[in-house]
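User: Could you go from structure to sequence for me? I need the amino acid at each position, not a summary. Structure tokens:
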């Protein structure tokens, strides 16, 4: 008989979730360690190892970070099992306290209580083991960047732009999220993602956001974002530490991003392609000649109109034309589909609106309007910032006739209790069709 230990079942299920996530989600196809977890039991703690190709995790599990796990080790050892088996079997067993034993080539799970006898023992489980040992890449020890950030704020920022990264392989360099930490009179962290044609930015400002008061600029692969948000949402502790490691061929250390939380180390790989990101600040800070307010509730009607007629459009990109009628204080919005009527959207806060120039209209991908409404939850006031078509007349003939993107500023949110505020922005290119 090999490894033997006892744990509280519910707490153990919670503790193994990060390793199961890394072993089974967004893994490389046909990867050697896909869906595998190695469990190492020692007298004072458990360690779980998972590596799916795009990410690895080393999870240390003990009474210090899982207070109710009630871990007791009778015999040290290690074993590798299928991650989906482990989670399914652990979740289904009815006992409160369980004993896990390695017997020959099977991992047996039974009640740790001696009172469970007879027919109740039929609830015991056993699962096959694997001869391989999961071996994640070596962890870095020297860091080019290191930042300790409030956990809840980091999650909030990621979740705000999860919809935004590119989804087409031909735009691979945009299949990522840029995270920035900026020290100033007040701290700012910024989360940016986009397709190349449309970008989303979440800016959060306040105090005690970045615990170690460091600037940072880190690009996270899109493939890992959902897992990062999920794992950190289920973690304990007020903060997480993020470290960047450059490649060290001599010590066989690949380039990686390390995320430390709750005595676990999540490492992200395959980041070599994400080295640069455009400066989005130039768009956010630019003073557009036209700055007009309107309500998202009104734009929601446009979304329904687009959905109702888009199926009759033969081209891959469906566009919508938006014309500003200053005299009537409305936008005339027309989906570019045959036999579709226009919808008029009122300008609001007229005294705060600024309108300059002539021939004021733009045409954009209809999907961007849909996303604008969705990201504002279909309600509230937004400011649309855009140029006039007449701006093109001032561009020399030998220069590209190109307008600045449409910038949408959403309402500022203030959390006085936490002493933070956040702003959300979207901007997207205008269409030539």
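Assistant: Here is the amino acid at each position, in order:
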């Amino acid at each position: 008989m090999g490894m033997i230990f006892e744990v509280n079942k519910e707490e153990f299920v919670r503790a193994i979730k990060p390793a199961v996530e890394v072993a089974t989600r967004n893994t490389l196809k046909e990867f050697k360690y896909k869906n595998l977890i190695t469990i190492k039991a020692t007298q004072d703690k458990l360690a779980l190892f998972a590596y799916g190709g795009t990410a690895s995790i080393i999870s240390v599990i003990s009474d210090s970070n899982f207070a109710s796990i009630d871990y007791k080790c009778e015999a040290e050892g290690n074993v590798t099992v299928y991650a989906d088996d482990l989670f399914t079997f652990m979740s289904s067993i009815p006992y409160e306290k369980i004993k896990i034993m390695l017997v020959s080539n099977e991992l047996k799970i039974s009640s740790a209580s001696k009172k469970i006898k007879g027919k109740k023992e039929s609830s015991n489980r056993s699962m096959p083991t694997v001869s391989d040992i999961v071996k994640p890449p070596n962890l870095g020890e020297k860091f080019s960047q290191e930042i300790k950030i409030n956990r809840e704020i980091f999650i909030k920022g990621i979740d705000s732009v999860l919809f935004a990264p590119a989804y087409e392989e031909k735009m691979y360099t945009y299949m990522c999220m840029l995270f920035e930490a900026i020290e100033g009179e007040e701290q700012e962290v910024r989360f940016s993602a986009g397709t190349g044609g449309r970008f989303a930015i979440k800016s959060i400002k306040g105090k005690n956001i970045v615990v170690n008061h460091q600037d940072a600029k880190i690009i996270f692969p899109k493939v890992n974002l959902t897992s990062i948000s999920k794992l950190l949402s289920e973690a304990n502790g007020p903060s997480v530490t993020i470290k960047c490691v450059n490649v060290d061929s001599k010590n066989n250390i690949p380039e990686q991003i390390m995320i430390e939380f709750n005595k676990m180390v999540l490492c992200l790989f395959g980041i070599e392609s994400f080295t640069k990101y455009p400066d989005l600040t130039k768009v956010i800070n630019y003073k557009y000649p036209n700055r007009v307010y309107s309500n998202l509730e009104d734009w929601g009607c446009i979304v329904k109109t687009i959905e109702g007629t888009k199926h009759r459009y033969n081209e891959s990109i469906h566009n919508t034309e938006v014309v500003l009628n200053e005299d009537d204080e409305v936008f005339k919005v027309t989906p570019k589909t045959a036999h579709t009527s226009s919808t008029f959207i009122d300008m609001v806060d007229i005294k705060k609106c600024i309108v300059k120039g002539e021939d004021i209209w733009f045409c954009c991908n209809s999907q961007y309007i849909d996303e604008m409404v969705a990201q504002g939850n279909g309600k509230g006031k937004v400011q649309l910032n855009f140029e006039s078509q007449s701006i093109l007349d001032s561009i020399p003939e030998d220069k590209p006739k190109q307008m600045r993107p449409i910038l949408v500023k959403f309402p500022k949110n203030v959390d006085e209790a936490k002493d933070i505020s956040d702003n959300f922005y979207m901007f997207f290119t205008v269409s030539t069709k």
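One structural detail worth keeping in mind: Helices lie at 9-24, 83-92, 151-161, 222-233, 281-285, 296-309, 366-375.
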